[in-house]
Design brief:
Largest sheet: 9 strands, mixed
Structural class: alpha/beta
Radius of gyration: 23 Å
CATH topology of the largest domain: DHBP synthase
Number of domains: 3
Number of helices: 19
Length: about 575
C-alpha cells in the first residue's frame, strides 16, 4: 500500500511517501525550489518521492493532507467576526488565498498531480502527534503537541498505544505558547516562523535567573500559567488576531521600548527579554509535562509541533519531570506533518499494525558517484578522487585538523531543518577562532549564533552532561545539554556562552562514514568532536544537489567540498563560475 502525505500553504511545505507502513522518502519543497520555508504546493517534493521509488501517481492508494481546511476557515471567520472592524484589512488580504487555493485543495491535488483516488484529511495536531508517536520506538507513550496554531488547537496532550492515538485535552487559539514565542521574536526584530531559534540562541546572553531578570516578571503579566500547565494569554498585549503585526503598543510599553529594527544593535535589554521568554516557555512546558505524566502514568514522552524544536527546553524535560524517556521525529514542525498524515491514515484509520521506527533521517534525494562525477566533468570542475570511504575519512579528518572548512555532501538529504551529516559544513571545534570564521566568512550570520557539536554516541557522556540512556532525539540535534566544564576551553567553538551545546550524537550503523570521520579526527586532535552546521548560507535552504553544494562553496569561505568520493578545492577552480547560469543542470 502506498500513501502520499502533503503539507502546504502555511510554511515549510513538504511531501512524504509511505510504503506498506514504512516511510521511504520525505523532503521539504524548499530544497528543490531554493525558496526558504516555501509555502507552495510541493510538486517537486512529490515528484522526488515518487521517482525515488519508481512509482507514478497511479500507484498511490491514498493522499493524506495535514489539516482540515474547512475547520481552519471556520476559525478565521470567527476571528474576523470577533475582532471586526479591526480585523477587516487582514481578513480581505487573506481571502484570495483561501478561495483560490486552500479551500480547493482536493481540486488542486487532482489537477496538479493527475490523481483520481481518495484524499483524506487529518487534523493538524493529530498529524503532529502521529508524525512523532507512530515512528517512535515506544509501544505506549504520553504525547504533547505545541505550536502556533492548527485549525483551533495550539497545545494538546494525549496518549498513544500501539496503532491508536487519543488526544485528551487541548488549548485553543488565541492562547498559544508558539505565538507568544513568535510575538517576542517579532518584538526583538527577527522574522516570525523563521527566527524563533535565533531568540533561543540569544537567550543565554541575557539574565537566566528568574529572581533577578527584570523582564521575567514583566512577561509573566502577559500569560497566566496554572499548575496543570494550562495557560491563557492576556490578548491586550497581542495584535495577531486582527493584524499582520504581532506585538501591541501595550506590550511595547510593558517591555520599555519600541520594536527593535533588524539592523539595530542587540542590547542587554533585548538579551534579557530573550532570556525571560525562554524561562517562561520552560515554566509552561515543564508544568504541562508533569501534569501529563500524572494523567497518563506513562514513563515515555513524545513531543511534537513547531515548539518541539526548542532544543534548549527539550534537554531539560527529563530532569524537570518524572518521564524516563523522550522522543521526537527529526522534523516535529509543520514540515513533519506530511509524514504524520500518512502514518495516521495507515496505522489509525486503516488499522494497520505499526512496523516502522524512524532511525534513518536521510530520507531525501541522493546522488550516485557517477552522477556527481558527470556534473563535475560537464562543468570542467577540477577534482581528485578517493578510492574508498576509509581513505575519505583519513584524508578529510586531516584537512579539518588543519582548520580547513569542509562542505560535506554525502548520501541521502536529511529530513527536517537540521543538517545531520549528509548536507553539512564541518570544521574544527578546538580552534577558538572557528566560530567567528564560520559566522562571518561562511554562514554570513549573527555573531551570537552558536554552532553544534557532533560526537559519536559512545563518546558523548565523556564530554556532555546528558540524560542516560542518551535520548534518541540527540541523533536529530533536538536537545541541548551542558558541556562538562573541563572541556569548555578545549572545544571553544561549540561551547555556547552558558557552557552548553546543541548535541548531535551519531551511531555507526546510522552513518558509518560520518562516524568514522569523527573518530579519525579524534585520533589527530585527541577530541573526537566536530563542528556540524547546515550546508547553506543565511537566507537559503540547505543544499540539495551537487550544483547547490558547489555554488555554496564557491560563494563562501568553504575550503573544500567532499561530494561522494570526490574532493573539490575552492582555490583550484575559477571564481567567476560559481554563480554562472552556464553551470550544467544536475
Amino acid at each position: 500500500m502506498n500513501i502520499l502525505g502533503i503539507s502546504c500553504y502555511y510554511h515549510d511545505s513538504s511531501a512524504s511517501l509511505l510504503r506498506d507502513g514504512k516511510i521511504v522518502a520525505a523532503a521539504q519543497e524548499e530544497r528543490f525550489t531554493r525558496k526558504k520555508h516555501d509555502t507552495s504546493f510541493p510538486e517537486k517534493a512529490v515528484e522526488y518521492c515518487l521517482k525515488s521509488q519508481n512509482l507514478t501517481i497511479k500507484d498511490i492508494d491514498y493522499i493524506a493532507f495535514y489539516e482540515k481546511p474547512l475547520l481552519k476557515f471556520e476559525r478565521l471567520l470567527y476571528q474576523h467576526l470577533q475582532y471586526f472592524p479591526k480585523s477587516y484589512k487582514i481578513f480581505l488580504s487573506n481571502m484570495p488565498s483561501w478561495f483560490n487555493e486552500k479551500l480547493r485543495i482536493i481540486r488542486t491535488i487532482k489537477k496538479k498531480l493527475k490523481y483520481k483516488k481518495d484524499v483524506l484529511f487529518v487534523e493538524h495536531h493529530m498529524a503532529h502527534a502521529a508524525g512523532s508517536f507512530f515512528p517512535s520506538p515506544f509501544e505506549k507513550s504520553a504525547i504533547i503537541t505545541l505550536d502556533g496554531v492548527g485549525e483551533w488547537t495550539t497545545t494538546s496532550y494525549g496518549i498513544g498505544e500501539k496503532n491508536k492515538i487519543t488526544l485528551l485535552k487541548d488549548i485553543e487559539f488565541p492562547s498559544s505558547l508558539g505565538l507568544l514565542y513568535s510575538t517576542i521574536t517579532a518584538y526583538l526584530g527577527f522574522s516570525v516562523n523563521n527566527s524563533e531559534y535565533k531568540v533561543m540562541g540569544l537567550s543565554p546572553y541575557g539574565d537566566t535567573n528568574r529572581k533577578t531578570n527584570y523582564y521575567y516578571n514583566k512577561l509573566k503579566q502577559v500569560i497566566e500559567i496554572k499548575e496543570d500547565g494550562s495557560y491563557r494569554l492576556d490578548m491586550k498585549y497581542f495584535t495577531y488576531s486582527y493584524k499582520n503585526k504581532m506585538p501591541s503598543k501595550k506590550l511595547c510599553t510593558l517591555l520599555d521600548g519600541k520594536i527593535r529594527h533588524p539592523d539595530e544593535e542587540l542590547t542587554k535589554r533585548h538579551k534579557d527579554i530573550a532570556a525571560a521568554l525562554q524561562l517562561i516557555f520552560e515554566d509552561a512546558l515543564f508544568k504541562i509535562a508533569n501534569h501529563v505524566y500524572k494523567e497518563t502514568k506513562c514513563e515515555n514522552l513524545v513531543i511534537a509541533g513547531g515548539s518541539a524544536l526548542n532544543s534548549v527546553a527539550n534537554g531539560k524535560i527529563l530532569k524537570n519531570s518524572p518521564f524516563k524517556k523522550v522522543w521526537s521525529q527529526p522534523d516535529p514542525g509543520d514540515g513533519g506533518t506530511s509524514m504524520g498524515a500518512t502514518l495516521f491514515v495507515y496505522n489509525a484509520l486503516l488499522n494497520k499494525k505499526r512496523n516502522y521506527i524512524l532511525n534513518d533521517p536521510y530520507l531525501g534525494s541522493r546522488y550516485s558517484d557517477e552522477e556527481i562525477k558527470n556534473f563535475l566533468k560537464e562543468n570542467s570542475i577540477k577534482f581528485s578522487e578517493f578510492k574508498n570511504e576509509k581513505e575519505i575519512a583519513k584524508a578529510v579528518s586531516k584537512l579539518i585538523f588543519k582548520d580547513n572548512v569542509i562542505g560535506w555532501f554525502q548520501g541521502g538529504m536529511e529530513w527536517g531543518p537540521r543538517a545531520l551529516g549528509s548536507r553539512s559544513i564541518l570544521s574544527n571545534p578546538t580552534n577558538p577562532k572557528m566560530q567567528e570564521i564560520l559566522n562571518l566568512k561562511v554562514k554570513h550570520r549573527e555573531k551570537f549564533r552558536p554552532f553544534a557539536p557532533v560526537v559519536c554516541e559512545d563518546d558523548a557522556l565523556k564530554y556532555f552532561d546528558c540524560d542516560t540512556p542518551i535520548p534518541r532525539p540527540t541523533d536529530f540535534m533536538l536537545m541541548v545539554y551542558p558541556i562538562k566544564k573541563e572541556w569548555h576551553k578545549k572545544i571553544p567553538s561549540v561551547t555556547h556562552v552558558d557552557g552548553s551545546g546543541r548535541l548531535q550524537s551519531i551511531r555507526r550503523n546510522d552513518n558509518p562514514l560520518y562516524y568514522d570521520l569523527i573518530k579519525e579526527f579524534g585520533k589527530l586532535s585527541k577530541i573526537p568532536i566536530l563542528i556540524n552546521t547546515s550546508f547553506n548560507i543565511r537566507g537559503e535552504p540547505i543544499v540539495c544537489t551537487p550544483k547547490d553544494a558547489y555554488r555554496c562553496m564557491m560563494g563562501t569561505g568553504i575550503d573544500y567540498l567532499v561530494a561522494g568520493r570526490f574532493l573539490i578545492k575552492r582555490e583550484d577552480n575559477p571564481k567567476d563560475m560559481w554563480d554562472s547560469e552556464e553551470l550544467a543542470k544536475d
